[in-house]
Structure to design on (418 residues):
């Protein structure tokens, strides 16, 4: 039996879960929480049980009778980024020849099957259904209105863009506060205006932060980093594979809005999260035409909405640690940018009559995430990538955790239940 006993050493984890154990023990008693207390006083956990540890705690392993074999797997439940690491020191006494001892692993690639449904270790599960529902609402609302929207754009009767409605110039400056609709229930009639401060401007992006976002989130430097990653990584990747987006607001840039409106989509005390969304309504005119009622809720511009950090759980009591949000955001940007490219090109470039079929649009957005994984890991498709390859270096580990883990998890579930 593998057990543990808190007696003072150095661990940074606050909660450790025992996932697997083996061995045997002698007579026992039951302690608080239903855990087993061995004669030595060590606390013995069965697989799946957890107990808190402070920075001054150690683990004691009671191996049981002679001849037993033991495996100890520790999971730090408070890690929220694949870039974080925790070191554990292990010492033994009274044992025979040890078997293989693996180094501490704080990443998904060490055991991908165990946590393939999460985007990052210890994080909530991505809510995939929201995007599909949103796409379905857009399909229904704008069916039959594509040609009229094209005519409105050609005659410049789109109505004022979000930028022109809120600042005197069409070229906003860092620090400006814009007024945008973040409502998402009905594409055109749900209007919920929030102020959004311009945090960073790059060659291809305008990064905004909702003025009502929870405290303790990203810094100005973080927003500048997202703008740079969009310019140098996501934009060339998505445009190279899916095509050039439109520019109906004539600003030459894509708006990335980090807003609590995304956080609010997740019910209170939930184990899931929405990473962001693109809303096709923002490509449609606000002005009425003889054949199409204007979409009053449209921001009339190329933009998408992203999850805001919420380290204290101010929105619906759902904690979204800054490190976790940081680790998932770039892949969400690649995903949502594909949606934007697809919708804007069908509407104003290829002259389609409707948005892309939902299943195909979503599939292409996940391909964008996979392409991002290859770009960030320096790997390539059709290379028979296995676990050993993923564990080659921290670069590939991080890329898998942040860009590919959720796709792999969905594929595994499909194979289990086609």
């Amino acid at each position: 039996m593998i057990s543990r006993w808190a007696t003072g050493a150095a661990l940074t984890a606050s909660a450790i879960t025992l996932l697997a154990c083996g061995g045997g023990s002698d007579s026992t008693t039951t302690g608080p929480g239903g855990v087993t207390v061995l004669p030595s006083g060590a606390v013995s956990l069965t697989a799946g049980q957890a107990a808190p540890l402070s920075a001054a705690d150690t683990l004691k392993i009671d191996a049981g009778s002679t001849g037993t074999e033991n495996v100890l797997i520790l999971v730090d439940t408070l890690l929220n980024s694949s870039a974080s690491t925790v070191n554990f020191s292990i010492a033994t006494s009274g044992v025979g020849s040890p078997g293989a001892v693996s180094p501490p692993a704080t990443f998904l690639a060490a055991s991908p099957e165990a946590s393939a449904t999460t985007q990052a270790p210890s994080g909530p599960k991505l809510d995939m259904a929201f995007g599909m529902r949103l796409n379905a609402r857009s399909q229904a609302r704008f069916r039959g209105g594509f040609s009229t929207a094209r005519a409105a754009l050609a005659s410049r009767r789109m109505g004022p863009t979000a930028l022109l409605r809120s600042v005197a110039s069409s070229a906003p400056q860092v620090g400006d506060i814009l007024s945008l609709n973040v409502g998402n229930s009905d594409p055109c009639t749900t209007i919920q205006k929030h102020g959004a401060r311009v945090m960073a401007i790059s060659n291809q992006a305008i990064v905004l932060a909702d003025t009502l976002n929870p405290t303790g989130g990203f810094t100005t430097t973080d927003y500048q980093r997202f703008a740079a990653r969009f310019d140098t990584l996501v934009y060339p990747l998505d445009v190279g594979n899916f095509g050039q987006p439109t520019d109906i607001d004539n600003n030459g840039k894509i708006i990335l809005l980090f807003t609590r409106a995304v956080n609010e989509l997740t019910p209170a005390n939930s184990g899931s999260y929405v990473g962001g969304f693109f809303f096709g309504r923002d490509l449609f005119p606000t002005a009425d035409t003889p054949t199409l009622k204007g979409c009053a809720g449209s921001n009339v511009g190329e933009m998408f909405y992203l999850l805001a950090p919420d380290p204290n759980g101010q929105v619906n009591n759902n904690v979204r640690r800054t490190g976790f949000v940081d680790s998932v955001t770039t892949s969400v940007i690649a995903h949502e940018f594909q949606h934007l490219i697809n919708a804007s090109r069908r509407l104003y470039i290829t002259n389609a009559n409707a948005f892309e079929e939902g299943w195909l649009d979503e599939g292409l957005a996940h391909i964008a995430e996979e392409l991002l994984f290859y770009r960030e890991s320096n790997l390539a498709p059709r290379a028979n990538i296995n676990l050993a390859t993923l564990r080659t270096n921290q670069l590939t580990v991080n890329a898998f955790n942040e860009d590919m883990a959720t796709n792999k998890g969905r594929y595994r579930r499909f194979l289990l239940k086609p």
Notes: Residues 125-368 form one domain. The radius of gyration is 25 Å. The CA atoms of residues 87 and 104 lie 6 Å apart. The longest strand covers residues 193-201.
